[in-house]
């Protein structure tokens, strides 16, 4: 009885592992599913959103930043050291243009010298966050998740966001403090639409008290708060980057004068509700639907260079869902045949498959780690080579077993 229970537990464990691997595979394909792995995206112009890479071999730090599409990472930069940039919006593939010297794109060589509409950051040299460090960082021993700002699209350590990260951020979007200050009207939306800032609670058990860490502005005298707020309004430069040169008060006055009847932003301002203008801001799913799209507000978003916030399909989640749909449409319909086959095998056969699967999984992990260590992209040919080696080893084991047959 105990043996049967152990077998059942092992069988369920295998199913769980397979389902987990399938989920991870779907997440990976969601990022790549919206991009073409065979054709350079350059002819499509500035693609709304696509998976991008930077080649440290061809465009190392010290030169000009450049980005390449998924197909070029496979066909033109195989064996090179690449930085995976996840996805970025409104970008045109640079592969083979003047930034790459004598190197030509194998898929679409007829490119202009440069793409003036592209936006670059230190991400293209493998650096991230306000700490300007690589990821993963071999010198950073603190485990910390990286979160992408939906405006500047840089990645930040949770501990460097200037706020407490909400427990669940899977379906939320984040805007870093620097980007919030460059579009000051977003603070008004933050007070009404964003996820409320998390307060740090410290329980003093020995005193039987609970201490709550408030924002600094809440503990300042009223006069100091007023002066501090005025200083923020006149801020011209944020974190070393040129910010919004117009005072927040001027924007508020202009908004009040030009706002349309029924303007959501105007109504929010009139309510008087506010929040401390510090730290990154997290936004719940579907928050973009609550942004005002009256004529005046549309111009406000355009002038600030964030008109894409009014587009619900601009989100990474929408891009990934599209990628998943594409993958599913091109895949085999119905239940996974491996899962179906497992249910038709006896316990001994299931255990044998479990051992074979675990061995294969370990060897595949070790094989892929060599690519990660060298910063290389894994191509379909590499995967085929791995399984060809597996088949060769399997045949050797089978042939060796013949000598022990009686």
The number of helical segments is 13
- Strand proportion, as a percent range, falls in 5-15%
Q: Secondary-structure element sequence?
A: HEEHEEEEHHEEHHEEHHEHHHHH
End-to-end Cα distance: 34 Å
Percent of residues in helices comes to 40-55%
The count of strands amounts to 11
Which strand order does the major sheet show?
2-1-3
**What gyration radius follows from the Cα positions, in whole Å?**
27 Å
Structural class: alpha+beta
From the spread of the alpha carbons, the general shape counts as globular
Largest sheet: 3 strands, antiparallel
> What is the mean predicted local confidence, pLDDT?
78
Low-confidence stretches: 5-12, 203-257, 401-406
List the keywords.
alpha+beta; disordered C terminus; 11 strands; 13 helices; 406 residues; globular; 41% helix; 3-stranded antiparallel beta sheet; single chain
Task: Give an overview in words.
The protein is an alpha+beta fold. Among the domains are: 42-127; 165-199 and 214-310, no CATH class; 345-401. It has helices at 2-33, 70-75, 177-182, 186-192, 216-219, 222-233, 248-258, 264-271, 295-303, 316-330, 337-343, 347-374, 380-402; strands at 47-55, 68-69, 82-91, 146-148, 155-157, 173-175, 200-204, 209-213, 237-238, 241-242, 281-283. The strands form 5 sheets. It has a 3-stranded antiparallel beta sheet. 22% of the residues are buried. The model is unreliable at 5-12, 203-257 and 401-406 (pLDDT under 50).
Indicate the topology.
Elements (H helix, E strand, L loop, with lengths): L1 H32 L13 E9 L12 E2 H6 L6 E10 L54 E3 L6 E3 L15 E3 L1 H6 L3 H7 L7 E5 L4 E5 L2 H4 L2 H12 L3 E2 L2 E2 L5 H11 L5 H8 L9 E3 L11 H9 L12 H15 L6 H7 L3 H28 L5 H23 L4
Helix pairs in contact: 1-10, 1-12
């Amino acid at each position: 009885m105990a043996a049967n229970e152990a077998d059942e537990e092992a069988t369920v464990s295998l199913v769980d592992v397979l389902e987990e691997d399938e989920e991870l595979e779907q997440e990976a394909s969601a990022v790549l599913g919206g991009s073409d792995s065979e054709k350079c995206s350059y002819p499509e112009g500035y693609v709304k959103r696509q998976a991008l890479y930077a080649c440290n071999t061809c465009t190392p730090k010290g030169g000009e930043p450049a980005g390449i599409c998924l197909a070029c990472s496979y066909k033109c930069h195989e064996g090179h050291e690449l930085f995976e940039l996840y996805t970025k919006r409104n970008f045109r593939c640079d592969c083979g243009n003047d930034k790459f010297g004598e190197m030509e794109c194998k898929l679409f060589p007829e490119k202009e010298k440069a793409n003036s509409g592209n936006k670059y950051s230190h991400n293209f040299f493998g650096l991230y966050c306000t700490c300007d460090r690589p990821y993963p960082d071999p010198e950073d021993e603190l485990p910390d998740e990286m979160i992408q700002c939906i405006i500047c699209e840089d990645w930040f350590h949770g501990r460097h966001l200037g706020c407490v990260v909400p427990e669940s951020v899977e379906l939320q979007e984040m805007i870093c403090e620097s980007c919030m200050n460059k579009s000051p009207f977003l603070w008004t939306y933050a007070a009404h639409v964003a996820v409320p800032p998390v307060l740090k609670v410290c329980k003093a058990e020995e005193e039987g008290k609970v201490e709550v860490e408030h924002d600094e502005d809440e503990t300042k005298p009223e006069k100091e708060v007023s002066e501090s707020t005025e200083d923020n309004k006149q801020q011209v430069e944020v974190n070393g980057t040129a910010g919004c040169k117009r005072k927040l008060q001027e924007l508020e006055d202009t908004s009040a004068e030009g706002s349309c009847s029924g303007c959501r932003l105007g109504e929010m301002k009139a309510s008087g509700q506010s929040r401390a203008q510090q730290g990154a801001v997290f936004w719940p799913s579907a928050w973009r639907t609550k942004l005002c799209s009256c004529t005046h507000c549309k111009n406000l978003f355009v002038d600030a260079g964030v008109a894409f916030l009014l587009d619900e399909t601009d989100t990474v989640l929408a891009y990934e869902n599209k990628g998943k749909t594409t993958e599913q449409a091109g895949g085999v319909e119905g239940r996974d045949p491996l899962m179906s086959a497992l249910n038709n095998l006896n316990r001994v056969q299931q255990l044998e498959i479990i051992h074979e699967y675990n061995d294969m999984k370990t060897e595949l992990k070790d094989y892929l780690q060599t690519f990660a260590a060298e910063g290389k992209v894994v191509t379909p040919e590499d995967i085929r080579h791995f399984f060809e080696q597996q088949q060769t080893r399997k045949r050797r084991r089978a042939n060796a077993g013949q000598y022990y047959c009686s």
